[in-house]
Every structure is written in structure tokens, then in C-alpha cells.
Amino acid sequence: MTTTAVSNSDTSSPPFYQLSQDTIQQIFSLLPLRQIVISKSVSKFFNQTLSSPSYLSLLPSLPFLALRSSPSHRHSLSNLPTLHAFDPNLNQWLRFPFNFLPFSAHQPVASSLGLIYLWADTNESGSPWRAQWKLFTITIESLQCRRQWTCLEKLEWGDVFDILKRPRLVKGNGNRILMIGGLKSSFLLNSSCTTILILRLDLETLEWNEAGRMPIEMFTCFQESSKFKVFGGGDRVCFSAKRIGKLALWDNSKGKADWKWIESVPWNGDGVCRGFLFEAGFTASP
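The line above is the sequence of SKP1-interacting partner 15; the predicted C-alpha cells follow.
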């Protein structure tokens, strides 16, 4: 840790300004991100300190659950590009307008490392594996060398792929993935579901465990819908279906699964929400 004090020619300045830069950054790193934003407007010194790349690297991200437009409504909404995101910590919806962009025919569809990716192509392509309930893996190095994908399976897994109806994969925390689907009442192809089950796979040990299952009273709202949408990541996953009018949220951020409803959803046309995990944060100005 460096011990160089922040230079300041005014000897009558507050003692806080005489602290080392590392000490000041450690103090401010304890504040919530929203308080940091407010602190930047206190003085020029605070703004410079809280905008430095070394300090920004210490800040955690804010996990928002962002909505994206359905494919059939991207064109009609293209002249009003906006990101609607739900803040689970404040339990409220946020709106991020994109009217500052030099183009208008784009919609937010994904996010990574705090960056938002915008839809720019009207042509869609389906996944060739949509009906194949198996896991495949490949390293980035192997992908660049055009090697084959490897089927990820173990004999001990048994019928893990047969108990879920229309399973979806969502990125979990660390080296884990979540597989989410309807828990089938039997092994018949078109059997009814009793609830929605979340399974978690540790990619290091290749062991599954149950991360959560939707309460029966909540699942009854999804029973009339033949399909439901899943989006999120980490410790939070959202569920949406037609004719429900709200989102179901699985929240495991405190180490214990909590199920609740998200109200006042800004619908985008067909009554079904699609979305992605948006980990918002600060980055250094270019």
C-alpha cells in the first residue's frame, strides 16, 4: 500500500485532505454506490478522487434485472430506445433513456461487465440444440482452434435431464450454472408440472444440488401458461408468463431462497417479459 499523502497547497485544508490516497479510497469503498455518486458532487477533490481508475476498480457492481423488448416489438419501439431495470435492493423500477445515442433503431438485449449491448439486426436464428437437453462445454482456446464441443455428463447424474420440462440455463455465481424448468409429475413426455425447480451445477466438482423450488401458491399462477420466460443470473432469477401481470423473483442473495412478486412491470407489448442481468457500475471516462 502506498503512503504518499494527497498533495494540497492549502495548509488550512481539513485533515481529511491530508490522508493518503489509499486511505481515502478505502474509506469511500465502504459506502454504497449511490452515496458515492452523491459524494462526487461535494467538491472537485472528491470528484477527482472518486473518478480515478484505481478507485473505480474497488467498487462492486449493482445487480439490476433489465427488461428487453420482444422480437415482434423491437421495430415499433425502435424510435424510443430505453432500458427498464428493476433494483432488487430498493424494490423499484429504474428507467435509463438512450436518447443520447446517434441512432434510434436499437434496443438493449444483453449486458456484460457493465456494458449494454444493443440489438442491431432484425434477422433471428434459433438454437440447433433447443430440443436437446444435454450440456456441452468447450474452452475459448479450443473454440478458436475449431475443435469439437464435449458433452458434459456423469453417470451419477441419473435422470437429472428427464425430470425438468423445457429446462433453461442461467449463469450462477462463480463457477456455477443454474438449470431451471418445470418439475414433471412423471417421466412421460407431456406430463404436467407440479412446480418450477432450480438446480445448481458446480462446474468444478460436477455435482448438482437443489437451489430452490417455486412455492405452490405462486406456481398456480403459471399453470395456465404453456410457456414461461426466465432471465437473471447469480442469486436472482425472474419468471414471466402471459396473463399474470407481474414477475416472480427468486432471490438467494442473502444465502436463503426468498420468493416474491415484482409489481408495476413496464410491459412491452405481448404481456411476457424477457430480460437479462445488468451489473451496473462506474468506469473511468475515456
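Note on the example: The first strand starts at residue 62 and ends at 68. The radius of gyration is 23 Å.
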